[in-house]
Amino acid sequence: MPNLRDLVELVVRDLSVAIEPRPSVTYSGPDGQGYVKILVEDGSGMGVGFTVDPTASRADILYEMAYRIPDAYVELYAVGLPVVPGTERPATPRVVADAVVWVDPSERTAWSCPVGEYGQALEGRHEGD
Prior knowledge:
By secondary structure, the protein is of the alpha+beta class.
């Protein structure tokens, strides 16, 4: 079974490139159906929660988190993150060959980045400028 904390950390690391301080993340469960509830909270105590099936594949769990945690950021911080470099469009997660990557939802660019490496991708982009 994948470590949920490690997978959450990959997503939060990417989203925290533009937002500080990081939100707190708590876990409860599994519930009667085997799902784990994940609660993302800002400093004021406002939170957004969702559930995941901890028996799913690593890619499926990471995709679910990469889909849901940015929604929590929108509700908590009024921003859509991470953004596609050079645009104001929020990136969306996609599963590609058992890996989860951020992509441009408009498909106007071929940009993609593995979840957990958004900050490094931005730094690498600036090195060549």
